[in-house]
Amino acid sequence: MNIRQLEAFLLVAELRNFTRAAGLLGTTQPAVSFQIKALEEDLQVTLLERNEKKVILSEAGRLLYPEVKQMLRHYRKIRAVTEELRGLKAGHLVLGATDVPGECLLPALIGGFREHYPGVRITLRVGNSAAVSRWLQEREIDLGVLGLAAELEGIQFHPWLEDQLAFIVPPWHPRAGQEIPLEELTREPFIIREDGSGARQALENKLAQYNLVMHDFPAVLELGSSQSIIRAVRSGLGVGAVSLRAAEEFLQAGKIKAITVSGLEIRHYFYLAWPRKTANGLTANTFRHFILDRDTCSRLLKREGSL
């Protein structure tokens, strides 16, 4: 039994998917399967039951799962202490982020960080705000980036970068590129993020100023990512409310168009979040200070066209 086998088991158990787990671990699906098989042979039990459609935990897997989470939590604490002794010549940083920072912002910043610290291995997990909050509370990640500053015991939140919501339509929409009154927007099918996302909360807070709720729209489609909203808009399913950072590439290519809604400019922050009392370790603290530096962030995001 080794740490890589336990990490592979934990991710497959959570994602119920070997391919996605392999992507997060930076390896191949056969390599993950080999790690799980080796762990099962070592323990002489079946941990995962597989068929063509899904992966489920066996009884032994369900019993082992919380123990593995605890073991890896202790392992990361030990690694944090040894990293401080060695400096940043090596280390493992586990990040968690919602889809916009995870897909549009952090890749460029991780690349810039690794230019300075090439020996640091970084894992980035992407989920919704609820998932990132849970990972923080259970100490499965060292640093989170999300759109909501929730009240979580023992978790510190810090406003980081500002985001703006864009209202988007397909290029053939009769009002593409124009400004429309809010009352006209309420006659359109509306495509928004799922309940609990930072973008959704910012949108609902702004609409509440005009005594509007989602039931005032003829139809509302809730989707779990910015990219799925953009695809739905391109398919003509309605007007989408999505992060401008996520939509920028499609707007520039003319695949979608923006509309301006009178009185409905919506901005909100992405937040950095980390455990308040638990020592994060030198790697996590160094990365946090790195991306909190405004000049560094601006330079790297402009270089990648993300700002």
UniProtKB/TrEMBL annotation:
Q: Does the keyword Cytoplasm apply?
A: no
InterPro entries registered for this protein in UniProt:
LysR-like_Sec_metab, LysR_HTH_N, LysR_subst-bd, WH-like_DNA-bd_sf, WH_DNA-bd_sf
Instruction: Tell me where in this chain the HTH lysR-type domain is found.
Output: 1-58
> Mind listing the GO molecular function terms for this protein?
DNA-binding transcription factor activity; transcription cis-regulatory region binding
Among its keywords, does the record have Transcription?
A: yes
Q: Which keywords accompany this UniProt record?
A: DNA-binding, Transcription, Transcription regulation
Family label: Belongs to the LysR transcriptional regulatory family.
> What is the name attached to this protein's record?
LysR family transcriptional regulator
